[in-house]
Amino acid sequence: MQPERTRLAWRRTTLAGTVVAVLAGKAGLMGGASAGMPAAGVVCCAGWAGVLLVAHRRIRGLTAGGEPERLAPRYAAGVVVCVLVTAGGGVGVVLG
After folding, report:
1. Around Cβ 13, how many Cβ atoms within 10 Å?
2. Residues of the chain where predicted confidence (pLDDT) is lower than 50
């Protein structure tokens, strides 16, 4: 049961990142475009892509069957950085 719950948690994480990226894009298109807004949008999308890559790798590992491998600390740190970059880019788009 635990691998299935972990896989679903990764899917929820990617969904939340997608929502942040879409809402940041919408806010960027609705408001007046300042000089920093495109850069903040690129940062937001880059962070989102990083989360997707790590999550996809992890989900693939969990569906392989058997005992899943532990998440390597470098991937865990990478996801934390990507989530923070995504959120920071989203905030930059909204405030920019």
Report:
1. 17
2. none
pLDDT at 32: 63
What residues does each domain of the chain span? Answer: 2-95
CA nearest to 51, candidates 88, 80, 26: 80
pTM: 0.72
Quote the pLDDT of residue 13. 85
DSSP assigned state of 67:
S
SS3 78: helix
Give the CA radius of gyration of the chain: 15
Rounded CA gap, 1 and 45, in Å? 32
Q: Are 54 and 75 in contact (CB under 8 A)?
A: yes
Question: Taking CA 55 as the corner, what is the angle to CA 59 and CA 91, rounded to the nearest 5 degrees?
Answer: 155
